[in-house]
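User: Can you predict the 3D structure for this chain?
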Amino acid sequence: MDYFVADGLSFNHELRKYLVANEYISRHIFILTDENVYKFCLPAILPVLENAKYDVIVCEEGEENKTLETCCKIWQRLSDLNCDRHSFVIVVGGGVMCDMGSFAAGTFMRGIDHMLIPTTLLAQIDAAFGGKSGVNFHNVKNQIGLFLKPKSVAVNTDFLKTLPERQFNSGLAEAVKCGILGVDGILNETGKKPLVYTDILKIVDDAIRFKISVTNEDFTENNKRKILNFGHTVGHAVETYYMPQLLHGEAVAFGMICAILLSVKMFSLDKDYADKLISLIRLHFDTIIIQLSDIENIIEIMRHDKKNDNGEIKFVLLDDIHSPVYDITVSAENIREAINDAIELF
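Assistant: Here is the predicted structure, written as structure tokens:
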């Protein structure tokens, strides 16, 4: 898989060069995007497709629309517009569109070549890399999907300037996760507030490099790649339960705090270091509201997590600084206590 990171006019130059060099520019191109991206980001990209044959398919935005029903609409439009196996799909959008668009392209006619242009911080450092695609099913995150690498990922950091602060911070949670798992530079950069643009560029670059290094080693998540689920066991359950009020990164931030608390309890992670990590997370997420009365419902959702094994709820925890351990079984009692303590912190 190819990828490049650029901004402004240099991004369009690199994108055009890539499409021409790989002869995609001469194919029938289909752009998959959502309503917000169509309005705020797509106009900056369309000049690259001058003299190319292309059609745009616009989906409803939001996690609640990351479903098989939306994929059916995409497949129907691709069929109606005469997409064939020689066509090329460009997915432009945030995490939802990258996951769902890649899944839709990868399953239509058993697979159409496609690339991703992520437009949010969350997508640029996480969703667009690693080859995970899919949709939510019966209120379970990413329950239907497949491992599938796009032909390329093209990152335009100028798009980050269009993000509301809350959406930007949502992506920052995944960057903090990379820092906790092993990239000191990211922890240093994300420990600043406010962040300046040069900080953001370094965070994006460091996070992409880290994720690629992990996923190249274990693409189908049999071993080491599991560490990237740090914070996601509680996070996905909380996100599912409060959807669409809670954003992905907000849920993961809460989930990381739960995982850190469990790491102190179960692996004797240094308490001062744990407090430092929690403070860093709360620097950007200080108003995540989870109700004590919802804890049992959250745990019930966790019982359906695809990472589980034989009914046991599995976590990624820390046994030391930058030392994640995966496939750790945690009891409902300990989960309940960690969620309760995390709620009190907010």
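The longest strand covers residues 140-147. The two ends are 41 Å apart (CA to CA).
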